[in-house]
Amino acid sequence: MKSLWNDKDAKKYGKSLLAKRVYTSRLLGANPNLVLHGGGNTSVKIKKKDFYGISKEYLYVKGSGCDLATINEADFSACDMQDLLSLSLMEDLSDTNMVSQSRASMLDPNSLTPSIEAIVHAVIPSKYVDHTHADSILSLTNCPNGRKNISDLFGDSVIVVPYVMPGFDLAKEVKKQIQKSKLNKVEGMILMNHGIFTFDDDHRSSYEKMIRLVSRAERFIKKKIAKKKLPVSKLQGISPNDLSQLRKVVSEWRGHPVLASLDNDIKSTEFACLKNIKSISTRGPLTPDHVIRTKRTPAIIGSNIVDSIDKYVDDYTKYFNRHASSNLTMLDPAPRWAILPNKGVVYFGKNDKEISIIRDIVRHTIKTIKQTVLAFGSWKALSASKLFDIEYWELEQAKLKSKDTHGLPHEGKVAIVTGSAAGIGFACAESLSNDGATVIGLDLNPDIISQMNKIKGNGVIVNLTNEAKIKSVIDDIVRSYGGIDILVSNAGIFTAGAYIDKMDQSNWEKSMAVNLTSHQMLLKHSIPFLKEGLNSSIVLVGSRNVMAPGAGASSYSCAKAGLTQLCRVAALELAPHGVRCNIIHPDAVFDTKLWTPEALSRSAERYGLTIDEYKTRNLMKTEIKSADVGNMVSVMSGNVFGKTTGSQISLDGGNDRVI
Ligand code: ZN
Which of 142, 227, 483, 628 sits at 20 to 30 Å (Cα–Cα) from 132? Predict the structure, then answer.
């Protein structure tokens, strides 16, 4: 591990003690082998005048939940050192009192809640204190000879702290160990099964002690591994159908839809192929902090997917009953990740953000388990009872609750919207995304990539008149997200107006191919996954033309009429599977690229109307916008329409020909 220290950057941050603290905290945060997603914490002790002008020493410590990689000065909370030291003298201190008293000691009451390790930082006398969960240190400690590994490598140059619960218990233990040691003789402090602390009066020295100790651990492990390799079995493929079945049963246990994402990284796939995968992957996490994200163990999926998840749930329930005191309520028993032996690793989360956090943690766990088994023969995590205490610790639960955004109607759902690079399709995608869905936009227009980026969705360039391409895109989507719940089939083209006897045959055929057959093919290949989806819904985008056609538009109107009939037949076929299919008929949506100001004024003139009159040519005299259609489609895809199928909804401000 290299020091990322850079004189030029260091100067840019400024000379204040806190600015220096921000710089080296970010250096720690920049290395995922040290800390991941809010893990680790740092502090600096600074003398400052309080509100009354009295000079006091404050501990500026990372606010709870902040990420070291992006931390700012405002993310540090200043706690009165005397108060924290007084807390460290108490015999006993509940978590709730520890948090409220730390908060009560803050210089600015509006600061973030200080890290739960604030008292640990306070009892270490050095000005700067750095704490990480370095992978290689955990490799050394998380094995049967963990304590011996630390002595072999570091000798007396580090203080070793046996595992105790983070927070007040850890502060007491650290204080005891420090009193026994000569601080100026040690480089740092190793916390068994938890991580590492370094400290110094100089910020650079404290940071570089961390890098030095972690680098020594890395070299030690590398030497032990030499050329050893673990036995692996042959890789087998994973079918998208298995993945969608797995996602469905996990979502049911979770209590709401989740995405299921197959890890494409070769290292994760190789891990799933290890001969003793079932045994080594289910012994516990890297550092106790991770249980709140990943639970204690992954699910191991055998040949029967439903039975495998049921067994996981059963084991989790037993684990809860064995360790819980009477006043605890069990969290959902669904796994956060699963291993399909010889096939791959799958993550479950309600959105891309949760998946990416779990993926990062698991990839580091996988790497560390593998290197530990190779270097030291086995992997041994903390006991289930100690991990339970963290998983059900009120302070850890609070960290998750503060960021919980669950509650949007489509959270955890996978939605496909075709023709969504612009206009009505984009509005549908945006509305579904705003309502929590993970949206994949399909379009021939290359803009689909950047347009979907705008709404945190994913764009795929595809020709929807090519059946083979449709099938492969659908399979890829299921591999990436685990299934399909919402399909909005919107792609379409306006064909040039022509009377039947004057119409070019290619005009008719093109309209049928894009406006009708492409939808039929999309449904054909999506339906197997929609049947495994969660309250699945199909919405087709039709046209007012179906009920109120105009002369000269046979190619467009007939295709949309065919689409309406496709909707009705799909509703009949899919109702027994709980999949709904409805169609929306919008009219006169002018805020799309198709309608330039020139085209609008030409059309308005033809009817002898102003542009405003032309845009609101309906019974309610109201303008229909693409966002209106998007919002309606999102509602039709959700629970409000949960008992409606085969219906046709007009969105046209009222049209006497339709009514
Ligand atoms: Zn920690």
Answer: 227
